[in-house]
Structures are given as structure tokens and as C-alpha cells.
Design brief:
Strand content: 35-45%
CATH architecture of the largest domain: 3-Layer(aba) Sandwich
Oligomer: single chain
Shape: globular
Structural class: alpha+beta
CATH class of the largest domain: Alpha Beta
Number of domains: 3
Helix content: 10-25%
Distance between the termini: 40 Å
Radius of gyration: 27 Å
Strand order of the largest sheet: 36-37-39-38-40-41-42-43
Number of strands: 43
Length: about 725
């Protein structure tokens, strides 16, 4: 009888729990998302949090004052009614209540919306249900930058317009599209650049980038959808070649006058970290040399544009990578927070506006990943930082005066947390390898949860047979550095059997694949392949993110060399497992991961039998200046490094099956990489498979991504699994 019951239960499990479909490799993240709150945040100056209803039509509230009971704060209908009153004659079509809101006061929040003809930033009062402030600009505009005095600077193509009280003025009118004003796409958005315009505190002056690309050659990208194919030129400065010239302009609204900040020679430099001093008398700019190994942080006069002084400098034998604008201390305009990894980890330092270092606010080996802001007294800074060898993200708070840091969240995992205005509570959302999602209110003194708002069940239970995911720690090829890895076991795993392996790799900077959050950071394609009978393995090698500068800079001038050495330590780990079929190891990666995949297939041809390389860098001399020269220097300065890492002459070593995939519209890793590799394979007499997505750029998106994953899975099944 017992055996019969057990068999029945197993059959029952099989009938309900299924495998992911190939479609769910793309749709699964939404379909199987753990229960959560949408847009949760603290309401300003209150003990309340707000979030959206599950149908996205209401703004809800839970408050400590009523035992955290759910109430409706305002509705989509009320919001729409307020729009009709404030904007007569304009038509808005809202599918949901606004997702992105920012509380300005206890009663008002700001958000951005669009009608059929204009875009607006508005302030809405949840008490009176009225729009209390609005400023708009044309629907054809982009990259809006709003001032404190209710004006907005925006872009029309490559030029800047300013709209204020229904009046729009032209700030620039360059007809040559190679002169680009105010855009955030400067220096290819490296160096932390996320905007191209900055208002001073009073809204009287606008600073903006002026990018001159006239000296950069046109790079052809072909649009295949026309009756006759059409060329679309792209400005793409390659390593060692002529780069764009960028200047910083100050525009005075009242007079209409412009001055150029005197950043000096050589013009071949990078301008970043643009920050207005709170009084508006000065503006600060980071000047990074083309070699990217010497940063000067300078102060300039906002009236004349003249250089005032260099506050501090950073030099390195590898690279200097500024990534953050200044954060000024509220109520103390003479002090600011500067973030840098100069001493090993991205941490915070307190400076005066004259360049005097007051205090190192760093804590142990914690890498600051998100500076959240100041507490209600403006004496403490809250931030998210790393822990647990980079696997975790925790909430920290540092006292500016004493420099003392406390960790406010304690459970191991990935936390997204914030502190209430009065500084007594933490809104904490976290997940880890065994916790799909949990949202709680913590007492900031005890750091213990007093109220649990959400405790999500496993979303796969009874629906999908989730493969077992295990986090592992290995030692890097240097013999000392610990590395984080993840192994996903095949469905119905049997340790007595032999399984093929798919290594999923990225390996480049500013990316981390293995994290202590739900599913361990694994993607749905990883899990799909495990369910198809593969061991799926991922390792974050040296050179990847969240472990500090020393961990990353071992790649300097030789991209791929130490990264591959570490990946081979991962392969050694796999080979030590009795269930791994050592004759059936494949690798898949995209972008830098495509470079790593192709490198591993050509440098370790007896180990890797199959590879799929998407959007792969093949030779770093074909890559853009800003990223490429940071890690490799120029081809003129580092010919040995470029030769060593180029894959064009390595294709002769290829033994396994290699599929290259590329988006024909790719403006990041241009198709020249893979085309030249194919040409080299022809000359070397090697068979390489090649597939193009004609209408996609660097990543294949939408439903075509399902097609891509199906192709990759089939390639592994045909050439590795069978």
C-alpha cells in the first residue's frame, strides 16, 4: 500500500509540475515573479508607505498609525479628473496610475506624464486631488531637465530648447547633426554619465555638453527593410583613432549669453562628474585624460568659465574611472561627498569645496553600490553596499561627524531598503537563494522586523519543477582570490549518471552574474537548459563587478587572459564531479561573454566542444575608444596586448562547433567583428556557423529573443548533447 501511495504521489507531481517552455525563457520572469508590492516607498514626513494596487489603478497606503492596514490614498479616476481640470483641451490616455512618483511633501508627489501633444512634469496633491504645479514641453522632445523655478530644458534632435510659462526659446540651433548639444550620449555614457544638462540651484543658468563629432569618421550600418537597402551612418570612434571633442557650456537664461568652461588642453579629454556648487558661483568638473589614468577634479567660475583651482587629483598605473557626481551635504554648502575606488573599493569621502579631505566614510571592504541620501537630520548617510564577498547587498548608515558605520539589515541576501523620514524605521525588501521575496518594516534600533508586509511563496510550486541551484566558492588562478560560482543541476538529477555541461559566461567589468538573491541570479534560459538535461555552470571571474578595484584591474592591457584562467579553474571544478561528462562541455556568452566564449573555444579547443557567441568582440581594435582604451590602452601603446587578445589569428586552433550570432544593427559591438572572424575562418579552412538578426542591435529583444534561445538550445542539443 505504501509503495502504491508513493507512486501515486510521484505521478501527481509529474502531472502538475512541468518544465519551462522555450517561450518562458523570455516571459517566465514576469509569469513566475514572486508576490511583491509595486513601487513601494516611504511617504515623506510620515510613518507610512505607498505602493500601487495589483491592477495598477490605485495608489495604496499602509501606516504604522493604523497597524499597517491597507487603505486607498487616491485612484486613477481621481488622478484623471485632476488632469482634465488642469489641462483643458488636452487628451491623456492612462492605462495605469503613474508608476514612478516622488514624494515632495507629505501631501504632494511629482510625476511625469504625456498627452497626445505634450509631455509634463506635474505635482499632484493626494489630499485635495488637484494638480498644484505643471510644466510641459513638446511631445517630440527628449531628455528633459527641470529647474527649481519651473522651467524645463529639453532636446529637439541635436539642439536644446527651454520652455517656461508657455514660452519656448532656442538655446542652440546647430544644423550639422555631428554637433550634439545637451545629450547624455557623450563619451558613450562611460564615466557615470547619465545626463547632458544641469541647472544651477536657482534655475538661472544651464550647463550642457556640446559634443563635436565632425572629426570622427562615419561608420555604416545597413537598414535592410527598405526596397533598396539604406545606409545609416554611425559615429563610432575606434580604439587608437580620432575621438569626439566635448566642451561644457554655461547658458545664462536672462541674458542669453553662453560661455565655455576653460577646461584647457589637450582637447582630447573626458569631462565628467559635472556638479553645481549650491550657491551657483562655481561649477565642478572632472577632467580625465585620454589615457584614463589621471583625473583632475577642477573648480571653475560660473560667470567667466575661468579655472579656479584643482581640488584633488587621482593617478593610477592602470586606470581611473570616475562614476559619480558630487553629493552636497544639506544645510552645509561647503561640504560634499565624493565617491571613488582609489583606495581599493568604491567608497565615500567627505571634502570641503576648497578640496580639503575631512573624513573617509568607507567601511571595511564594502563597495558602495547606491547612495540613497541623508537621514531627516542630515547628519547620517544611508546607502546600499556589498557584503559576503560581493554576493549580498545590505543597507548601511554612516554618521558624517564620527564616521561610524552600522549595518541596518542583517539577513544574508540582496536588500533593497530605505529609511523613514523620522529615521526610526526601515522599509526592507530582500530575497536570497531560499527566499523568493520578503518585505518588512524594521525597527532601526533593534534591526528586527516588527511587521511583515509580504512573505512570498515559491511561485514555481505545483507549476514548474525548479532545478536545484547551488552556490559554490572556488579559488582563482592566482591561488588566493575566492570566486563566486553557481551550479544548476539537471532535472531529475542522478549523481550516478553523466551529464553535458553548458557554461554561461560574461566575465567583463561592471557585471555580476552570481548573486545571493532568488534563483541565485540565474536567468530563465539557464534553468530551461538544466531542465533539458544539462549541468549549467557560471563563475564570476576576476575582472567582474562588486569586488573592488584590485579584483578588476588584473585585466589591464590583456583582456580575457586572467578571466580565462579563472574560468578554467571552474572547468577543473566541473571535471572533478563524477556526474560531469568531460567530453561534453560547451560555453555560451554574449558581448564580452561572446568574446570569452570565442576565446575559450580557440584557446582551449580540447576542452570546449561547442560554443555560442552572441555579439562577440573579436579584436579590441574594432571596439570604441572609451571602454576599450580604459582596459587595453591604445593599439599604438599596447600592440602586444592587442595581438595577444585578438581572435582573428586564433581561429586556426578551433576544433569544436562554434555558432556566432550578431544583430545587424549593432552599434555597440559592430558587425565587423564577427564578419572578419568568419573571413579568417574561411582562410584557415575552419567551419563556423553564423546567424544574423537583421533588425536587432546589440541585444535581441521581444519575441525574437524566444527564437534566439530556441536556436541556441537546438545548437547545444545537436552538437553537444547527442
Amino acid at each position: 500500500m505504501k509503495n502504491y501511495i508513493l507512486s501515486f504521489l510521484l505521478v501527481g507531481c509529474v502531472s502538475f509540475a512541468q518544465k519551462l517552455t522555450i517561450e518562458e525563457t523570455v516571459t517566465g520572469a514576469r509569469k513566475y515573479a514572486p508576490t511583491s508590492l509595486v513601487g513601494q516607498q516611504w511617504r515623506k514626513d510620515s510613518k507610512s508607505i505607498t505602493y500601487l494596487s495589483t491592477d495598477f489603478t490605485n495608489l495604496l497606503e499602509k501606516s504604522a498609525t493604523n497597524g499597517w492596514k491597507e487603505t486607498v490614498l487616491t485612484t486613477k479616476s481621481e488622478f484623471e479628473a485632476a488632469l482634465k481640470v488642469a489641462f483643458t483641451g488636452e487628451e491623456f490616455t492612462l492605462r495605469t496610475f503613474p508608476f514612478s512618483i516622488k514624494w515632495q511633501t507629505n501631501a504632494t508627489f511629482e510625476t511625469e506624464i504625456a498627452s497626445k501633444t505634450n509631455q509634463y512634469k506635474i505635482v499632484y496633491d493626494v489630499t485635495t486631488k488637484k494638480i498644484t504645479s505643471k510644466i510641459g514641453y513638446s511631445i517630440e522632445g527628449s531628455q528633459a531637465c527641470f529647474s527649481a523655478n519651473n522651467a524645463v530644458a529639453w532636446l529637439k534632435d541635436n539642439n536644446i530648447r527651454i520652455t517656461s510659462t508657455n514660452t519656448t526659446i532656442e538655446v542652440t540651433n546647430d544644423e550639422n547633426p555631428a554637433i550634439v548639444n545637451g545629450s547624455d550620449y557623450v563619451h558613450r555614457q562611460e564615466f557615470g554619465i547619465d545626463r547632458g544638462m544641469w541647472w544651477n540651484a536657482t534655475g538661472t543658468q544651464l550647463a550642457y555638453y556640446r559634443k563635436d563629432e565632425t572629426m570622427v569618421g562615419n561608420y555604416p550600418i545597413i537598414n535592410w527593410n527598405e526596397r533598396e537597402a539604406v545606409n545609416k551612418d554611425l559615429k563610432y570612434p575606434m580604439a587608437g583613432m580620432t575621438s569626439e571633442r566635448v566642451t561644457l557650456i554655461l547658458y545664462d537664461v536672462a541674458s542669453g549669453k553662453k560661455i565655455t568652461i576653460q577646461t584647457g588642453e589637450p582637447k582630447d579629454q573626458y569631462l565628467t562628474m559635472v556638479s553645481w556648487e549650491p550657491s551657483g558661483k562655481y561649477i565642478f568638473v572632472g577632467i580625465l585624460n585620454r589615457d584614463q589614468n589621471h583625473l583632475k577634479f577642477n573648480k571653475y567660475d560660473a560667470i567667466t568659465g575661468a579655472f579656479v583651482k584643482t581640488l584633488f587629483e587621482e593617478k593610477a598605473t592602470t586606470w581611473v574611472e570616475p562614476q559619480h557626481a558630487l553629493t552636497f551635504v544639506p544645510n552645509n554648502p561647503n561640504q560634499f561627498i565624493y565617491q571613488t575606488d582609489f583606495n581599493g573599493y568604491n567608497q565615500m569621502y567627505l571634502y570641503t569645496t576648497d578640496g580639503k579631505l575631512l573624513k573617509n566614510l568607507g567601511f571595511k571592504d564594502v563597495v558602495v553600490t547606491n547612495l540613497l541620501g541623508f537621514d531627516g537630520t542630515n547628519t547620517k548617510i544611508n546607502y546600499i553596499g556589498t557584503a559576503n564577498n560581493g554576493l549580498d547587498r545590505q543597507l548601511y548608515q554612516v554618521d558624517i561627524k564620527s564616521g561610524k558605520t552600522i549595518q541596518l539589515t542583517t539577513i544574508s541576501g540582496t536588500h533593497n531598503a530605505s529609511v523613514s523620514s523620522d529615521g526610526t524605521m526601515v522599509l526592507d525588501q530582500y530575497s536570497n537563494a531560499t527566499t523568493p521575496n520578503e518585505i518588512s518594516i524594521l525597527n532601526i534600533k533593534t534591526r528586527i522586523a516588527t511587521t511583515t508586509l509580504v512573505k512570498a511563496d515559491n511561485p514555481f510550486t505545483g507549476k514548474i519543477d525548479l532545478p536545484r541551484i547551488e552556490m559554490v566558492s572556488l579559488t582563482a588562478a592566482d591561488g588566493t582570490t575566492p570566486l563566486n560560482g553557481r551550479i544548476i543541476y539537471p532535472a531529475n538529477f542522478d549523481a550516478t549518471k553523466k551529464y553535458p555541461v553548458m557554461v554561461y559566461v560574461y566575465g567583463g567589468s561592471h557585471a555580476q552574474l552570481v548573486t545571493n538573491k532568488w534563483l541565485g541570479g540565474a536567468g530563465y534560459f539557464d534553468m530551461y537548459m538544466a531542465q533539458q538535461g544539462y549541468v549549467v555552470f557560471t563563475l564570476d571571474n576576476r575582472g567582474s563587478d562588486a569586488r573592488g578595484k584590485k579584483f578588476c584591474e588584473v585585466t589591464h592591457r590583456n583582456l580575457g587572459v586572467n578571466e580565462m584562467a579563472d574560468q578554467m579553474k571552474g572547468v577543473d571544478f566541473l571535471k572533478s564531479k563524477s556526474f560531469v561528462d568531460t567530453n561534453k562541455i560547451g560555453v555560451f556568452g554574449w558581448s564580452f561573454g561572446g568574446f570569452m566564449t570565442t576565446s575559450l573555444l580557440t584557446s582551449q579547443p580540447d576542452t570546449f566542444k561547442v560554443g555560442v557567441a552572441g555579439g562577440p568582440v573579436i579584436d579590441w581594435k574594432y571596439y570604441e575608444i572609451m571602454y576599450g582604451e580604459r582596459y587595453m590602452d591604445t593599439p599604438q601603446d599596447n600592440p602586444e596586448g592587442y595581438a595577444k587578445t585578438s581572435l582573428l589569428d586564433k581561429v586556426k586552433n578551433l576544433k569544436g562547433r562554434l555558432l556566432l550570432i550578431h544583430g545587424a544593427q549593432d552599434p555597440v559591438v559592430v558587425q565587423q567583428h564577427s564578419m572578419n572572424f568568419i573571413e579568417s575562418s574561411i582562410k584557415a579552412g575552419k567551419q563556423v556557423d553564423y546567424f544574423l538578426y537583421p533588425n536587432h542591435e546589440h541585444n535581441v529583444s521581444g519575441r525574437d529573443r524566444i527564437h534566439m534561445y530556441a536556436k541556441i538550445a537546438d545548437y547545444f542539443d545537436v552538437h553537444l548533447k547527442k
